Amino acid sequence: MGPSRRRYYLGIDIGATWVKMGIVGHRGFLRAKEEFDTREIRSPRQFLSRTQETIEGLLKASSIERAAVGGTGVGAPGWVDYSNGIVRELTNIPKWHDVPLADQLTRATGLQTFVDNDANVMAVGELIHGAGRGHVNFICLTLGTGVGGAIIINGKIYRGARGLAGEIGHMVLDHNGPRCACGANGCLERYVGNRFIVANAVRRLEEGRGARRRSTILKLANHDVNAITPKLLAEAAAQGDAIAREVWRETGQYIGTALAVLVNLLNPECFIIGGGVAKAGHVLFDPIRKTLARLAMNKLGRVTPVREAQLGEDAGIVGAATFARTCTETG
Ligand SMILES: [Zn+2]
């Protein structure tokens, strides 16, 4: 069967909490999907067998022949050596060091497998099927447990000398700031990663006693601070809660500051922001745009659009599958 008959690609999105997999058609539509809890996976070896099993299940459930699948793409949240198919290090998932995942998965499944950083594959998805269509130079950010970044230059992922390029989440905003998982201090992720947004809200609730009683955040959380999530904070902000709005304003300012640095450095056509936290919408995007407009040189922040990613929930899967397609097509 020639390449043109291989109409489907498999996408695997490894997240800190969920591993999501799916079969994606040429236009970026998801044909079948499956997911499992990342924390159930104790080692890369176990990941391999679980993945193999899941792929078999997906093919069966969708009645798609293996021969119609052109390959598999994997997005992993950390440092990936793309050209050798090796996962070097995953910041938020322990026990992954120098795993030759592309080779292992290719052998285990009989499908040619390509591995890259999760934000990189998401950017390829947005480039071909989403908010990046029509652009050749842009920067993607994914906001979740971690903060991922990807740089597209001339329609291609810019990886740098050792494949680490685009780690925007670890841009140092304050060298005296709080310690980050990467070992540095004051990284962007240390302020706007999921749990740090929540911690910011909890701290503000503890500081302001009167405000605490009135806060919609606690009402929505049934007075359990452990139930506070970015999603809940977005809801509280939408209902006009002062603390929630302040948390999002500060979160947006940190992100906007990073984007201003990137405008001065790379002068992209636009920014595309995705991931769960981006669903907060305008309470987050307004302060991002405002800060970017204020800090970037020559007022360029005002003419550099900040867009929401378009591929939504399944951006990771669709991105990984689309990435595999571009890898096989370019040889
Ligand atoms: Zn860091």
TrEMBL record:
Coiled coil: none annotated. Signal peptide: none annotated. Pfam families: ROK. Transmembrane segments: none annotated. CDD domains: ASKHA_NBD_ROK_FnNanK-like. PANTHER family: BIFUNCTIONAL UDP-N-ACETYLGLUCOSAMINE 2-EPIMERASE_N-ACETYLMANNOSAMINE KINASE, ROK (REPRESSOR, ORF, KINASE) FAMILY. Belongs to the ROK (NagC/XylR) family. This is ROK family protein.
